[in-house]
Amino acid sequence: MLYQDMTSRDLLQQRTTLPSGDTAWRPSPLVTAAMEGSLAVLDGVHRVNTGTFAVLHRLIHDRELSLFDGSRLLRHDKYDAIKEKNSFSDAQMTERGVFRIHPSFRICALSEPPTLGSSTGQWLTSEVLTMFLFHHMRDLNQQEELQILNQLVPHLSNMQPILDLTHKMREAPDANLKSAATSLSTRQLLRIARRLAEYPSENLNETVHKACLSRFLPRLAQTALDEELEIVGLTSSSNKITELEKATTCEVKDGVLRIGSTTVDVHNAESKMKVPDVLFYENPQHLNVMEGMLKDFLLGEHLLLVGNQGVGKNKIIDRFLHLLNRPREYLQLHRDTTVQTLTLQPTVIDGVIKYEDSPLVRAVRLGQILVVDEADKAPTHVTCILKTLVESGEMHLADGRRIVHSDSGIPPSERVIVAHPDFRMFVLANRPGFPFLGNDFFGAMGDIFSCHAIDNPDPQSEMAMLRQYGPHVPDHVLEKLVLAFGELRDMADQGLITYPYSTREVVNMVKHLEKYPHEGLATVVKNVFDFDMYNKEITETVVEALHKHGIPIGANPNNVALAKEFPLPALRLEASWEVRRQGARKHTAVLQCPVEDKPLRVKGPVQMSVHSHQMDRTDTRSVKFTEQESFWTLPLHETSAIADVAVTKATVSPMCLYTMNPAKKQLTYIDLYDIFPSPQRRSVSYKPRIHLAPLGFPLDSTIIVHEEFSNITLSVNFETGQLSRLEVGSFVEATAEKISKNFRQQQGNFKICSTFSHEPDGIFLHYKQESGSITVFHMLEGRAYSIETPVKIQDIQMVSRYDWLITEAGSGDQYLLSHSKEQPLDFHLQGILDSASTKEGYRLELAAPVPLPDSHLSAALDQSIKSPNRILISNDAYASVAVGLPDLVRCSDVEMVNSSWPQLRSKLPVQYLPESGQVVRILATWQVPKEVYPDGQRPRDLSAYLEVTDLVNKHVRYVPIPGVMSNHVYNQWFYSGASSAEVGVVMAGMSHDGLVTVDNGGCVRTWQTALFYLDQSLKSWRNLIGEGEKELKVGVCLIREGSDFDPKFGKIDPTGSPHVGGGTWAGGSGGMNTAGLGGIGGPFRLDIGQDVHQIPDWQKEKLQSQMPEDVKRAAREMGQKAFKERLKQIKMSEYDAELYDRFMDGVQGQIKSLRIILDSLQAKGKERQWVRHQTHGDFDEAKLIEGLTGERAIYKRRGEKEPEMGSPQQKPKLVRLLCDVSGSMYRFNGHDSRLEREMEAMLMVMEGLESYEQKIKYDIVGHSGEGYKFNIVDSSKPPKNNKDRLDVLKTLQAHAQFCISGDHTLEATKHAIEDIIKEEADEHFVIVLSDANLDRYGIRPKHFAEILTSNEDVNAYVIFIGSLGNQANVIAKQMPAGRAFLCMDTKNLPQILQQIFTSTMLSSR
Predict the structure, then answer these.
(1) Which terminus of the chain is more exposed, N or C, with fewer CB under 10 A?
(2) Distinct helix (H) and strand (E) counts, the chain
(3) Category of 795 on φ-ψ map: left (φ > 0), alpha (ψ -120 to 50) or beta
């Protein structure tokens, strides 16, 4: 086995010492083979330096060789001639240092082919070409490969789909598929075949992903692989896999280990001290991985575990070996690892070199498990010597010994080590590349191991594990950590941050919180991220993710922004209600209503498609504490409007039913477009009115959806998607109703009352306004009955399960319809006498179905009282308390709190919270008192206010609801005339007096308004910050009370020394009034390159509040003056600056993401290597004997190697951006903002690539109907300042505005590919931005695809940034896999560019 550090001397002879201490030369295996007439196999010619390999030139051509000890090897005939001429014997020839090369001696060299077009790996020089006869080992075709597999695996089955996929990927023109296909080598296919023969139930999709280690493939390669798997029919069974993981358990019983369904006898270890025993908390995901490892172990495989740092690779291995009771040898590699240190440890004892066996040799000899950790840190040319040991069980050691396979038949001796049959190698490696800066161990040697991708545990597994590490840490804290770090890991995969924070960091935080429970979570989390605080972009991204999940890092515990309380007017007696149960006119006072059973006809069920969507929860209490807890955003259609909210959300036009569980990240929705009539088929003024009625257990997965205008009632199972239509009455009645609808005008709307639908029988009422009939549905029993009353019903409120309050249309009179649990069909109607005349416009909006507790009732009425009661909510009062309703026989006193705002014309959303006795309305911003407005001005950025009336504590609060994130014209039409006309927000109650609101932009918000729960949440929030530890903090305050606030530029320090505080020096940090960073009152920011000492936000806010207004104004004027001077320097007007800032505001985050990605790319080029033959540095073990003989150049040190003579200079990547500046970009910019998106994309690229010219050079070329090439930015002259970049944007817009119609996309792409390859570069990229308007000009996607793939040395891609309808989707599907992207939002562009740049990583393997 040849390796890169091998010298010409190592190739021929090695120096050693004799027992006497004298040095001697030992022949290498190559020289021994030459003298014995053996076949010398030189494996890895491509790794050895060409100068080193040149020493064999004479041996191969002349069959002669001069050795370093002065001896010579001669061709057999020449040797025989000299021996015969001088009459020497063989012994005499040996004494003279002349040896015979056996005529049977041959050399067989093995090598990988050189990489075409690469500046490295070009080992096949003109000198090497003359040394060998070359044979190219072509890839086996499918039939040949199948034949080999059948011969080696007799009971082979189920391999044909994988073979089809493998050969399809090998022959694919796409470089991404070819790169993934290298993992499916014949050796790997043989391993898969053996496993499938032993475990035929294995999922083939997962098997391929495991073999390719797809978890760590670049995004494009992952996508291409998934598409090919789907094409050949190898689909994943994710549900089954999840169930299997949950079902995986582990136990050791009667000497047998069982993991999942796989069993093995526990090993009887002799060296029990080397059996690892580690603290390990089992979780389903890790157990599932260990079961896969056990299957491979039983098949005799060596294992490779690849994963990010800190995901538990060592823990899994140690636990696995502990369960097996297998002793281990541990070997940790590093960047300084050499071939010698990997195998033997040379030492000098009494002048004699002694070789101590490394853990590798001991494990081979004793049959133990060798755990090789951090394998990616060692250079691949070092670790490649493990290849022969793993593949064939053989290895040559530096002391001349040889390891042979246990089945070789060679007896052990002093020079031969027979490998123990129980020997296995478990290798652990991080994923290659940034930020771990490891080598691609999997790419170099992955197919000789059975590979397992180790990822962070899924949220459920991680929660289960963390509960065991921190049994006393609250669950809500653990959940915040799991969700926040899960988000950070996703961001690392997308390239938004560099380090993929692992389970290790979370476990350490939980252990800290377990031991120090009073320390705030924010403080503990900050300790983990302090290292990243040096990078502003990464800091902002990380803090934003932590805030999103409610970790208040950087928050001030005093930053509480609850709504202001206003005193509630006193309750006063408004009326007395008498429920007449008997009297002189009994037939009018108490009326028994007839009840008739109605057939409940269920049409269906019909199976509807249940779609899913990822939902991101954002915690709103991260920086300040408010009534709002969190929010989500629904993926609404642009013409959708929110209709109602219950346990689910529904939208109209198109009709859609959304279901979400706040504890989960998944949202499901069912499209009901085909169920309800569309507006086009009805009147133009038709506006769907939806009401939702959630049912309780055991029907808790069912919801009733009722549309008031069309009177369609549906029963929808939102989990399974089964939909049924509910109808009552006979078929004759239903037919007559349909016919009569066409001949009479509709009067009133159909309504349902679902106050008690959550009870087990699923009861709800259905009625038509201005009629006297009520239909009662019992969903659990599947029955319905109707009740006929003599009252024209306007509204029904269920004040209890058996008492229903009816309001008569027109007169507004109240009636009580009652029955009992014992006689459920005996309904009695009683009129209610009101002592006060009904006010004009009075309307009862809601009656509470449950009473106030006695303590709350007493507090509200300021008297000790125990009585039945109900809260009544009308449109002319905050709230009313009806004492005695509905249980007292005689009368109920109605005490009312009159509202301070005028009577409302429209019905507003209202909700009653039973535990706290609060009444919550949604009011428009103009309907609240002016005292609520900040600064006395009505805010424009709010949707509405929550009016929280607290009868118990006698106050009212107005909680602001943030503005709609996205609003459409359709919403204004839909909400006109609705109950939420002024606000566009619907509301529903939750458990523990919580509230949920949904605005017409699809934003779902949860709220707390009850004081008891707010107090609990505030304490918990402050505990997260760690307020209790505040008095223990020690620090130095840099701000002097009573300081001079006057802003100034400050003095220039000629030494450039850093200054913190003091208010003297310009460019300082943490100061008060000079230009610098991290301070409080300076006129503008000034960075001189020093560390920033940031003043805490709470201190900054405090001192800024003390700063006089004239000082603030002076600082601002000074900053504006400096800004205008800077504009003059770059000849930029203030208007231009504002315009540039407007574009920059849209892409600031994207520029930050792009720079993070470029930092990771740039870091890969900074790796250093060992420089040998130095006179100082670290001792080189390979030159131990030279040191004994007095040689001085026996050291090595790390450094950047000078390039060898003739090796090409490293070039930057070259990127050409083809911008579509055709007329359609300008024409349809108003449709989808495509031109603005393109301009933002160009600004992002120009800003993001600034200062990265040594890594990436770019130019921007435009194409339109005018022609295929308009140079906009030249790679040799990139824009240097804001004005130059703004000029580029203006050029793009102007060209699109004034160019003629036409399209030159194909010509521009073809010319760019042909032109860019002419310039030398590390890699060539052509990125085409297009609006997909190709059909208009007869451009076929197939022709476009051919041009993109016309040159394999140019990585060409197309990004569609605009589309009319689904144009872009249709074209993208016809493009080669991974070559086309859709970008309808600029924020996705950095991730697309990252995929493009990283897609070539594997293709270079």
Answers:
(1) C
(2) 43, 66
(3) beta
Separation of alpha carbons 789 and 827, rounded Å: 10
Amino acid letter, residue 862: D
Residues 1369, 1348 contacting (CB under 8 angstroms): no
Q: Between 475-494 and 503-515, two packed helices, what is the crossing angle to 10 degrees?
A: 160
For 917, other C-beta atoms within 10 Å of its C-beta total 26
CA distances from 335 to 311, 437, 1174 (A): 22, 10, 18
Please state, in angstroms and rounded to a whole number, the distance separating the CA atoms of residues 199 and 794: 69
Distance (Å, whole) CA 666 – CA 753 = 30
- Sign for the pseudo-dihedral over CA of 832, 836, 837, 838: negative
What is residue 1332's three-state secondary structure? coil
Of 198-212, 344-358, 897-911, 1182-1196, the range with the highest mean pLDDT is: 198-212
Cα separation of 383 and 440, whole Å? 11
Tokens representing 345 are 């440890």
Average pLDDT over residues 1239-1260: 84
Q: Residue 600 has what pLDDT?
A: 86
Do 1347 and 1320 touch, CB atoms closer than 8 A? no
* pLDDT value for 1027: 55
pLDDT digits (tens, 9 = 90+) for 1260-1286: 999 888 888 888 898 888 888 888 888
Q: Answer for the pair 6, 45: CB distance below 8 angstroms, yes or no.
A: no
Q: Are 218 and 1402 in contact, with CB atoms under 8 Å apart? A: yes
CA 1353 – CA 1325 distance, rounded (Å): 9
- Closest alpha carbon to 553 in 521, 578, 575: 521
In order of 45, 659, 874, the CA distances from 910 in angstroms are 81, 22, 10
Structure tokens at 816: 């009580």
Nearest to 1331 by CA among 1188, 1245, 1198, 1221: 1221
Alpha-carbon distance of 512 to 7, in angstroms, equals 52
**Amino acid letter, 606:** V
Cα-trace Rg, the chain = 40
Question: What's the rounded Cα separation, in Å, for the pair 442 and 304?
Answer: 8
Angle between helices 160-170 and 204-212 (to 10 degrees): 40
pTM score above 0.90: no
Residue 19: what residue type? Answer: P
CB-based contacts of 1092-1101 (< 8 A; 24+ apart in sequence): 1093/1038, 1093/1060, 1093/1061, 1093/1069, 1094/1070, 1095/1038, 1095/1039, 1095/1070, 1097/554, 1097/556, 1098/556, 1098/558, 1098/559, 1099/1037, 1099/1039, 1101/556
- Nearest partner of 883 among 896, 874, 902, judged by Cα: 896
* b/e burial code for range 267-291 (CB count within 10 A of at least 16 → b): bebeeeebbbeeebebbbbbbbbbb
Task: Write a three-state SS string for 1046-1091.
Answer: CCECCECCCCCCCCECCCCECCEECCCCECEECCCCCCCECCCCCC
Tokens 């003599």 identify what position? 790
The owner of tokens 């817009």 is: 1293
Local structure of residue 419 (DSSP, 8 states)? P
Highest mean pLDDT among 990-1004, 1039-1053, 1121-1135, 1165-1179: 990-1004
Distance CA 1034, CA 1079 (A): 20
Closest CA to 939 of 923, 921, 920, 963: 963
Q: Which residue has the higher pLDDT, 189 or 583?
A: 189
Integer CA distances (angstroms), 227 to 176, 223, 238, 476, 949, in order: 12, 6, 16, 39, 57
Q: Could you give the residue ranges of the DSSP H alpha helices within 503-566? A: 503-515, 521-529, 536-548
